[in-house]
Amino acid sequence: MKKLEDRIIKKIYRIETEKTIGQIISEAALIIPIVLSSMFIFSVIVEILNEQASFDLFDFLRDDFETIRDNFFNNSLLFIQEFPLPLIYILIGLLLLLILLLFILAKNSNKIKNKLVSIYKFWLK
Amino acid sequence: MAELSDKDIVKKIKNGEIDYYSYIVKKYTTSIYRYIERKLFKKDEADDLVQNVFISFYKAIEKFDEERPIKPYLFQIVQNELKMYFRSYKKSLPLDERIVSEDKQAELKIEDFKLLNSQESGIFKHISEGYSYEEIAKVVKKPLNTIKSIVRRGRLKIKKIYL
Question: Which of A40, A50, B69, B74 is most buried, by the most CB atoms less than 10 A from its CB?
Fold first, then answer.
C-alpha cells in the first residue's frame, strides 16, 4: 500500500509541477509583452508630442506664480487635445490589462509561493 | 499535524500547500483500494483506478466545499471511475463471451446465420464483408432505416439464443 501511496503522491506532484510552471510561464508570457508594448507605445507618444512641440505649452511653468495660475488649466487642456488619441486608447487598454493581470498575480501570489515551496521540498530535498 | 481535520487539510491544499495532500492519500487509500479490489475482474488494475480517483479528487479540490466530508465525495469519484472501467472493459469482450457487440463490423459465426431468415442473413453477410449500412441499403435497394431495423431484429434473435 505504501508503494501505491508514493506513486499517487508522485503523480500528483508531477501534475502540480507542470500546472504551476505552466501558469507561471503563461502569466510571464502575458505580462512581459504587455509591459514592453506599453513602454514602446509610451515612447512613441512622447516622440509624437515632441515633434509637435506640445511640451512647449508648459514653458510658462518657468514664469512667475501668477502666470502659472492663469495659464495652467487652459494649457493643460490644449496639451491633452494634442495627444495622439488612438495610441492613448491602446496604452490605456494595455495598462488596464496589466493592472488586472498584476491584481490576479498578487491575489494568487501566496498560493503560488506555497506551491513552489512544496514542489521544491518534494523534488529537490 | 496529526490533529488536523479534513476541512483544515483541504483549506491548506487550496492555499497551495500541496504536501498536505499526502495526508488525504494516506488516510483513504486503504479503504478505497479494498472497495475497488472487490469490484474488479482484474485485481492488478485496482492500483491504476485508485490512482485515478485521487488524481480526479486533486483536480476537483479547488471547487470542493471544505465543509463537506471527503469520504463520500471520494466514493462518488470511485463510482464514476468504476463505471468508466466497466464501460471500457465491456468493449473488449469478444462475441464468444456471450456478448453481442453493437459494432457494425461484428463477426458472426456460421451457425449464427442459421437463426436468421434469408433477408437477415443476407444483410449480416454483407456486414461481415465490411459493407456499411448505407452501402447495403443501395445493394438490396431498401431504405437505410429498414436495413437498421433488420439488423436490430437479427441481433436480438442471436442475443436471445446466447443469453
Answer: B74
Structural domains counted in chain B = 2
DSSP letter at B16 equals T
* Shortest CA distance from A8: residue in chain B: B51
Cα–Cα dist B28/A10, whole Å:
16
Residues B16 and B73 in one domain: yes
The alpha carbons of chain B give a radius of gyration, in whole angstroms, of: 25
ipTM: 0.74
Tell me whether residues A8 and B19 touch, CB distance under 8 A: no
A81-117 pLDDT, tens digit per residue, is 889 999 999 999 999 999 999 999 999 999 999 999 9
Inform me whether the C-beta atom of residue B58 falls under 8 Å from chain A C-beta atoms: yes
Same-domain status, B16 and B77: yes
Same domain, B16 and B71: yes
Per-residue H/E/C for chain A: CHHHHHHHHHHHHHHHHHHHHHHHHHHHHHHHHHHHHHHHHHHHHHHHHHHCCHHHHHHHHHCCHHHHHHHHHHHHHHHHHCCCHHHHHHHHHHHHHHHHHHHHHHHHHHHHHHHHHHHHHHHHC
Q: Does B22 touch chain A (CB under 8 A)?
A: yes
Cα B20 from Cα B13, distance rounded (Å) = 6
User: Which of B9, B32, B33 minimizes the C-alpha distance to B22?
Assistant: B9
Q: pTM above 0.90? A: no
- In sequence order, the 6+-apart residues with CB closer than 8 A to the CB of A95 are A38
Q: Are residues B56 and B107 in the same domain?
A: no
Burial category of B87 from C-beta neighbours within 10 Å (exposed 0-12, middle 13-18, buried 19 and up): exposed
